[in-house]
Amino acid sequence: MEARRTKTSTPPPLPTPDQGLDGARALHAWSESALATAGVDAENWRMTRSPRFVFATVAACLAFHPLPIRAEIAVKSGEKIAFLGDSITQGGWSNPAGYVNLVIAGLAANGVNATPIPAGISGHKSNQMLERLERDVLRKKPNWMTLSCGVNDVWHGKLGVPLDDAQTAAGTYEKRGNEPDKGTYQKNITQIVERAQAAGVQPVILTATVIKEDLNTPENKALAPYNAFLRDLAKSKKLRIADLNANFQERIKAANTPGKNAFTSDGVHMNGEGNKLMALGVLKALGLDDAQLKKAQEAWPALDAKAAEAAKAAAAKKAADAAKKAAEATKAPAPAAK
């Protein structure tokens, strides 16, 4: 029996994820429309073709007119992400609109409810992060770990951590208090990554951001080989990487505000725009596409409002404490007469 042709002039609309049909129903509706456009009566066509032939035909159609594919977000709901780092990461958690909170909110906006494990400590370098890796990260059994390290290794100068054995031999590095052995940045970071992997944790490398927004400072030049090592390590171990340093350099050059900080409060620690730039880099490294990043950003104004309220409350408390201290000073007893 020949399939009756009832050709239409309108091409079949391809279903999209926003049309409200699930995959099976959307494909069914699209195939019905495609057959009609081809001038084929769908009911008669199905009756005269085997299921295998029908499937092969639809598959062939999709090969030339594929369904749009959403990016695969690497993190899944219920998973835990550790954020290992220094004061930038510590602030990324303590600030309601810090990059750690923005990442978690951005994932949630895209249907991924992940649990953060904040592990940023102010002033810490690669040797100190290696020393506390087990306590602050691995014992908490995260699925993922972002690693933000390098600024203090360079910024602290002689109190920092040398890049490699050659730098160790060429310079004099000093320990502070009960700080663990310096090692080298390359060895420390490699051990952090390998220990995390051995524990079943997936590391995500974040290149170190900037040390002052003047990109030509000696500190930024000294930071460059540290970041080059991170890129090579990520490539050799097939790790996800957020090249934040490259992102910051690009945006700082575009902002073109010499003498003013566009993304940091002091040349190192993030302001609101810097936290957003970091969060976008991390989310992109975790697999979000442009549409998903836009959806993430739409969730951030609520966090900005929380940060503003927190700053207002902190300022009020500081003023109240200062007033109390001044009042106590005026009530102090007069010194005894001699």
Quick overview of this protein structure:
With 338 residues, this protein is of the alpha/beta class.
Features:
about 350 residues; alpha/beta; 5-stranded parallel beta sheet; 14 helices; 5 strands; disordered N terminus
Write down the overall mean pLDDT.
Answer: 86
* Silhouette: globular
Give unreliable regions as ranges: 1-12, 15-21, 58-62
Major sheet strand order: 2-1-3-4-5
Helical content band: 40-55%
Proportion of residues in extended strands? 5-15%
Radius of gyration using CA atoms only:
28 Å
Structural class: alpha/beta
Which H/E pattern describes the elements?
Answer: HHHEHHEHEHHHEHEHHHH
- Strand segment tally: 5
First-to-last CA distance? 124 Å
Descriptive account of the structure:
This protein is α/β, with parallel strands linked by helices and 338 residues long. Helices cover 52% and strands 7% of the residues. The protein is built from 14 helices and five strands. It has helices at 23-37, 42-48, 51-64, 87-94, 99-109, 126-136, 151-155, 165-170, 185-198, 218-236, 244-255, 272-285, 290-298, 300-330, and strands at 80-85, 115-120, 144-148, 202-206, 240-242. It has a five-stranded parallel beta sheet with strand order 2-1-3-4-5, with helices on both faces. Strand 4, helix 10 and strand 5 (240-242) form a beta-alpha-beta unit. Helix 4 (87-94) crosses helix 5 (99-109), helix 5 packs across helix 12 and helix 6 (126-136) packs parallel to helix 9. The chain is globular, with a radius of gyration of 28 Å. Residues 1-12, 15-21 and 58-62 have low confidence and may be disordered.
